[in-house]
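User: Sequence in, structure out. Go.
Assistant: Echoing your sequence, followed by the structure tokens.
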Amino acid sequence: MSFDMNKLMQQAAEMQAKVQQMQEEAVKETAEASVGGGLVKVTANGAGAVLSITISPDAIDPSDPEALGDLVLAGVNEALRSAAAKVEAKAQQMQAEMLQAQEKLKDEVVEASAGGGMVKVKMGGDLTLREISIDPEAIDPEEAEMLAEMVQAAVNEALRAAQELAATKMGGIGGGLGGGLGALGG
């Protein structure tokens, strides 16, 4: 199998787009923290931005500005921690779904042939070659190069079909974090 720079560049671009989409989703994931019995409320998002701070007038004591600072500090840190935990939980869920899909792919098999069916191959959804069947009529010492080309064509077609299967099966993974990752193997 030959190295395909175009495919690698396409996969890199897809991954970059997915990272961008995940970052956009993290902006939408918010958490609120309330500290000091509700005297200070802070809302933050999964991208690490504080969206709002609400300070109750009862929290403002001109003689103790340090206490107010401590409440705001605690509220900001708790809101940021909570929002980051939500994003991390979604990422872990996506990773678990991906691993489960990859395990299921091991049980899937695609078939391909070349040379009018003279060479047949079976490829696992996990991109492992499972079987090669060569018709005895295709075996001719004078035509070794043609046989090699048929085997290569059948294997490449099976790889393409297995990658397409993986992209289909894994396409829906990543719901809240930017959609599926597709088949990144190659």
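User: And one key feature?
Assistant: The domain at 25-93 is CATH 3.30.1310.10 (Ybab; Chain: A;).
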